Amino acid sequence: GAVVSQHPSRVICKSGTSVKIECRSLDFQATTMFWYRQFPKQSLMLMATSNEGSKATYEQGVEKDKFLINHASLTLSTLTVTSAHPEDSSFYICSARVGTSFNEQFFGPGTRLTVL
Amino acid sequence: AQTVTQSQPEMSVQEAETVTLSCTYDTSESDYYLFWYKQPPSRQMILVIRQEAYKQQNATENRFSVNFQKAAKSFSLKISDSQLGDAAMYFCALTPGYGNKLVFGAGTILRVKS
């Protein structure tokens, strides 16, 4: 149980285009999902917290117009990188939490984004 | 502010030996949760072990155990009988309060020698 999937696992796009990454909780309902960014050999950096049916809460320094997050259902959150540039190339990881009764987050396998 | 510090960028251990990864943290919350996550080369984050701050007993999961020193704000991970599959990046993480976000340490790369 508690499986989180991400799609796509890898994406290559041209500079200036937008890319959408999906995060799904497969066997549970996730009231809260988190989006992280990770550079090689570095830690996970929280970008935003997404609650179902409400606007995402972005961390300081993260451009909300650049990284659009939608959490339209209890099993799906999407991250759209708008007008992507090479510096947006990174590994993006989502996680999902089951309600608020337990603090464990379940992580997706990540998406490697390369912007040419 | 909540912080998690892992002072060992890299550690090495011989197969079948024991290794301890260090972690210190700081939080003003009285209730919090601590975690160790493993990130192998596949980059899938895997929960290794968790500890509730209100529990005095150290958590144990098979070959993995923690030494939770609440007063010292220390949360080290001990891996016994190390296996090649234990090679990974290990992250210490803290959730302050209840239902809040995870704060990660910088990570420790663990290498296992055969």
Describe this structure in words.
The complex is a heterodimer of chains A (116) and B (114). The N and C termini of chain A lie far apart (37 Å). Chain A has 116 residues and is mostly beta strands. The model of chain A has no long low-confidence stretch (mean pLDDT 92). Chain A contains no helices and eleven strands. Chain A has strands at 4-7, 10-13, 19-25, 30-38, 44-51, 57-58, 67-73, 76-81, 90-98, 105-107, 111-115. With 114 residues, chain B is mostly beta strands. In chain B, strands 2, 5, 6, 10, 11 and 12 form a six-stranded mixed sheet that branches. Classes of the chains: A mainly beta (116), B mainly beta (114). At the A-B interface, β4, β5 and β9 of A face β5, β6 and β10 of B.
Features:
heterodimer, A: 116 residues, mainly beta, 7-stranded mixed β-sheet, 4-stranded antiparallel β-sheet, 11 strands, 0% helix, B: 114 residues, 6-stranded mixed β-sheet
Helix-strand blueprint:
The complex is a heterodimer of chains A (116) and B (114).
Chain A: E1 4-7, E2 10-13, E3 19-25, E4 30-38, E5 44-51, E6 57-58, E7 67-73, E8 76-81, E9 90-98, E10 105-107, E11 111-115
Parallel strand pairs in A: 2-11
Antiparallel strand pairs in A: 1-3, 3-8, 4-5, 4-9, 5-6, 7-8, 9-10, 9-11
Chain B: E1 3-5, E2 10-14, E3 19-21, E4 24-26, E5 32-39, E6 46-52, E7 60-61, E8 64-69, E9 74-79, E10 88-96, E11 103-104, E12 108-113
Parallel strand pairs in B: 2-12
Antiparallel strand pairs in B: 1-4, 3-9, 5-6, 5-10, 7-8, 8-9, 10-11, 10-12
